[in-house]
Records
---
Amino acid sequence: MNNPNNPAPFKKYALQFWQWFKAVWHRFWHFMRLLNHRFQLVRWILLIGLVLFFCLSAFLTYKAKTSDVQDLKSALKTTTTIYDSQNQKAGSLYSQKGTFVELNQISKNVPKAVISTEDRSFYTNPGFDIKGIARSVLSYVIHRGQITGGGSTLTQQLAKNALLTQQQTFSRKLEELFLAIEINRVYSKDDIMTMYLNNAYFGNGVWGVQDAAQKYFGKNAADLTVSESATFAAMLRSPSYYNPINHMDNAISRRNLVLDLMVDNKQLTSQEASAAKQQQLTLNDTYAQSDGYRYPYFFDAVIDEAINRYGLKEEDIMNKGYRIYTTLDQTQQAAMQRSFNQDWAFPADAADGTPVQGGSIAVDPKNGYVTAVVGGRGDHVFRGLNRATQIKRQPGSTMKPLAIYEPALESGYHYDSVLQDKLTSYGKNHYTPGNADNTYAGQVPMYVALAQSKNAPAAWLLDKIGVKKGVGAVEKFGINVPESDQNLAFGLGGWGKGVSPYQMARAYTAFANNGKLANTHFITKIVDATGAVIVDNSDLKSKQVISSSHAKEMTSMLLDVFKNGTGQTAKPSGYTVAGKTGSTEVPDSYGYGTKDQWIVGYTPNIVVATWIGFDNTDQTHFLKGISEQGVAPIFKLEMENILPNDGDYQFNTQPASTIAADENANNKGNWFDDIGKNIEDGIENGKNVLKNAQEKANEWYNDLKSFFGN
């Protein structure tokens, strides 16, 4: 029986395994030697390794040479500036930017402390440090392929902060190394130190030594003491942990360590360091951040357009000192922002305190300039949801002029053509659009149907002219209609994808500008830090999408919306405007109310599209009542704040109701004219009947073909 405490059997098996392993290893090594002797394997491995190293080095050198190193200092010195449509400065865009100061405006104690702490060989190294790289490689191995930081010179840190992301990867470290070499080649050491100190982060939202001096000690960077300079050098390791506002004890402990390092580096004597350690850090916050982002939603939209239309990167826009010339009208923008700040102009919050949201945009119909935009209420989030440009909501009856009434004019109808006003069902699904007040006149003139936003005659008219014609008209106005929504309901604004206020404002520019659809935009020109024009958008043309006569006739009907239609309560006092209201209903189970409320209004000088609603609609978050009750106050306030500064204007037509009344008065008793008009209308109606019959016959024929499987 084997004794488990006897190690002899284990030694025996271990010895047998070792002998077997040595024999296998000997045969393997002998085979590899023969293979290497025959095929020169080691040489090939070395050659491939050298080729790969050369290719990688060439690639990284190319990236470093083609980066913006030459313009780095000028970019760090300047902020991206936004100009309005009159080329007046409207604000600035900030990212990793502080108030830039030259090295002679910074206390000499600061670079001494920084060099002693971060990079003692700064003035002699070629942008990198071999010992530091060795430490990084060792750390990379110890932490199993994870870069943990450290080992970077000041030049490498500058490359990382100003030109690269903060992501810790091996490839990024390699790129950082080659960029540092290029920076060291292009700039003097004093320039590199200057850029580093102006681009470093010091916590509490402050970049650069000058703003940090104001934030923590209430003085200029030139006046920093040894103790304060050592404190700043200490903060570079971890600004959130070592800043004296939030962690005074940590800051003092780390400062004292930096002072000792300065002694070791012969930048201070022991007596000077001891004296500095005895000094208290007296905090004095005099930093006032420049209010550069004055028009947040407009500036957000400018950044979005620069990225999406012109392919720029956000970090370049924010950091590279561009001059961006825009379509902004500062007076209109300020007026729109003031309007949105008035809570009384919006419906009450939901029971849980969720506010009704909104978005509004103003466009000059003559040149497509977006002059003002507000994308929401409450606190602004940088490049967050802009409800004026980014939301997609059902447009309700604001779609009718685009999808129904304008294409009806093209089909031969007129502003006073008689439409059927009866509750009618259509198609296999028995779509039955009803009027909001549930009353029906039997017949109604087109201009009355539009002004009163009646659904029954609008659907009847779209059925007569054909959905396909309505879809084609809407797409001429720059709005794509998904195939799944191409039915009668889309003409009344009830389609799934929806539209943004930006899209609606652009579409209505064709009515305001004699049938020409504006090429709407925020940016007219972008100039980089060197003065080169990289975007020139100053000569965009409008496109004629409908005839000027139809635009005029549409405007005459849309004037009645505010004169005696659904927009009466939204009419700005003392001003004449044309346009359309709209709303989309919530399910009956919610109660009486709407999901979205719209007004798109215009003069010959400006088009304003305004939407309100909840971001997420449900049984406890919907708008009570109809369009003129909810959106009317904010639209009225906006227009009353904007129009006094918008210049004089005059429509080229009268309201349709006025034209109709004048024609009736002139034609009263003239039975020849009445007979002629009746004959003309009869012929036109006959044409429409025949056209409709033909379309129905084609539809029946196609159904029969499908039924018999042909």
---
Amino acid sequence: MSDSNPSPASALSRRLVVAGATGLAAGVLGMWGDVGRAAAATTDVPEATLTDLGPASRALTFGNGVRIGDEIWFVTRQILPTKVAAYDLTQGRITKTAVIPDVPGLWGADVVGTDLYVSSYSPGRLFRIDTVTLEVERLVDLAQEVGWTVKASPDGRVFVGTYPGAQLWEYDPASGQATNHGRMDDDDQYVRDLVASETTVYCGIGSRAGLVAFDRASGDRTSILPTELASRTFGAICHLAGDTLVVGISPTAEVLVMDTRDPSSYQILQTPNDSFLVGLTSEGDQVWYATRPSGSLYRFTVGDTEPTLVGIPVAEASNLRLGLLPDGRLWSVTSAGGIVYDPATSTTEAMDMTTPDLEPMPERPMSLLYAGDRIVVGGSLGVQVTSTHNPPAFASHRVPFGGEAKDMDTRDGTVYLGVYTLARLLRMPTDGRQATEVARVAEEYEQTRPTALVVDRRRNLVLMSTEPDYGRWEGALNIYDGRRFRSYRGVLPDQTVQSVWPETRGVYLGGSVNNGFGTTPTTTRAKLGYFDHTTRTMSWIIEPTAGTVIQDLKMVGRVLVGSTVEGELFALDVTTRALLWQVDTGAAGGKLAVIGDRVFGTDRSRLWSVSVGHTQPTLDVLASGLSQSWFGAPEVVTDGTSTLFTTRGLNLVRVDLS
């Protein structure tokens, strides 16, 4: 979002002519009621002036890890190229790396002998890495979007759990045979984690919590989740301590401790003030686990009625794997690196991940913000801040924090950030190096992922829309006035609130038919409505188009413009709520920028512009061949006068219109 006032339309028109962006009248190729819709009428214009500002965001993020002897093996995610790397505990440094081709990241990891097995996402595949020779072999195409988890059984078989089919795969390293055992839950999408014994594979299910025991000999599936946990979202992490099955339950950070010989014999331990178990290990009957968001480390002995807090090695840590070293210290792979923690002295040592073969690398951006002389780019575990000038006025730098900034806005020297997970609102000084939490949506509203954030400059409010937690329904509008944080869940019935735009007495809300991940939509068209600040209710709700997700909303004069995920731009007369026109803008609809009477957007390949009024407009193409790679909706931001910022590939580009 821009913090600048738009320039006059006439001045912008002159700049567009200089840039070669003249338009021709578009024919009406179809009808939506009595509204003309331009299906493919575009004007190819000379390309605008693009200046490459380098990688939009650089990060070093990890998806999992496992110990093999004196080495901790890390696997990367969300950065390219995807790699695995070994940290040698005796030498205290990274000593080996290998590239995993043709996938953007890895989630599952486990070991058989000296072979590392990892699973990928987009697409879901299983790979083997010989940790001695560093040979990489692609073993199985899982025919799934994500291989969430990989665990080896005591007899050396490799099991993989998937999304969205909630499938269980088995790979036999001795024969090279891969077997798909099918769905572990007929009604859900995730095998989020698993653990295997000689006889049974225990599968943690989501997005509605489940726990399935799969008999390896017969293929029978048995649901063993206690009924009092059925309302949770995930059996999120699984571990065997002898004959005891330990399962972390989300989003309540409860610990299910079950006797595998008699599943009716179990305990449920409570972990106050946390949401997730993110690391789990044991030695004998002593179990250790780490939580998020607090980063706390707990310990209990099988049979205890409550856990003991050991310490907080890293606040807000997202531990991905936890294990014990022979000397009694614990090692942990986190999203940001690795640590070794000594419970005896309560000291934490960070693993040195610096090496030329494992540096911060370009990542797919999640959000953009123009903030004066800088662009703020949302990514994994923080934001990247880059100068708008070339050569840069300052060095690009990272502001780290736990989570992902899904949208941002700025006012009076402060950047506000909507952060996933836990639907948090953070802020930082525009020229600062640290972000702090302002508020988060209360647990009873069951929200997790911000979808839009806009500062209402008239009322000095921060408006943040959110998507519900996995397996939950109905998003929320959340309003922060500097003192109180209010949430209104279900204001768009049966939908997520996907986009927001402030108005004098209220807020325009654009919907999404999708609710929490793992749910099935109950509506077919995205809703558009108006939330009144005085009554704190919806004044009206309509379904303006056949689009399923309204990605963004912008006001241009008295015309409300929206973009849909299907790649459609529409305009609404806010006085009559009549649909004025629709234009196809490409394969993907994203977030918009406005200068004067023009709106700008991108379909991942082209940068386009539309002049907004009450009559059918033409789509003008300003640049093409962008080959954008976003983690989310494509986006354009502006200084409000003559310059746009978007991406080309993984690089940030400035687009000068004069």
